[in-house]
Amino acid sequence: MDKTNRLYEGKAKIVYETTDPDLLIVEYKDSATAFDGKKKGIIENKGVYNNRMSTIFFEYLEGRGLKTHYVKTLSDREMLVKRLKILPIEVVVRNIAAGSLAKRLGLEEGTPLRSTVLEFYYKSDALGDPMINEDHIRAVGLAEPEQVREVERQALAINGYLGEFLAPRNVDLIDFKLEFGTHHGQVLLGDEISPDTCRFWDRTTKEKLDKDRFRRDLGGAEEAYQEVLRRVTTIGAGGR
Length: 240
Ligand code: 5GP
What we know:
Elements: E1 3-9, E2 13-18, E3 23-28, E4 31-34, E5 39-42, H1 46-63, E6 70-73, E7 78-82, E8 85-96, H2 99-105, E9 112-122, E10 131-132, H3 134-140, H4 145-166, E11 171-183, E12 186-189, E13 198-202, H5 212-215, H6 221-233
Antiparallel strand pairs: 1-2, 2-3, 3-7, 4-5, 6-7, 8-9, 8-11, 9-10, 11-12, 11-13
The structure holds guanosine-5'-monophosphate.
């Protein structure tokens, strides 16, 4: 499958068209941004780690009956995916309070939540991705009501499956962000699943093993990504 046009270059990925109009190639980069692009940097080899981790998670979820845009991995940094019409909503699933939820509700990071929290954000760089609810999605026509129900169903199923996968690897799935799109009318999971888009904490030490190491200048970001990759590629890994 050959790359043709460069379709889009984002903060962490480049997307190319291919000779097949239904398929795209995603190239994962090492560049990292945070706070609406105000903070910029490089996490060495991040593109390679995120491509591998996304491959593992997509293949695992496909094996559990979830439908994703993943087709196959082409190289260290490249993945072949189905072309999606991206729904302009981001879905965040939370199991433990952290990040913006901890701040907004005045909770200490690490506070367990009594039930899973699902949030929607409007994908708009100009507006800074504001949080929205289903009424906003319906009122503005960002997605059809049945698409929203399908997105919710898949997001909660993904949360359950990822949590089951990570627990024996001594990783807590704190929260994560998903993006969905339609492919010939079917709602599929898109984007990536990696420490860029998920909060992963060591279950024992609560050490952060994700992009918060970059966002918060904690150091050791590359080592953290490498460690998550090590744990997800080691079957039944029990941590360090
Ligand atoms: P928070 O709202 O607490 O900042 O983020 C919640 C979760 O969603 C975190 O796991 C975070 O990594 C992910 N997330 C939310 N928005 C974005 C985004 O724009 N880019 C990335 N990479 N992850 C996001």
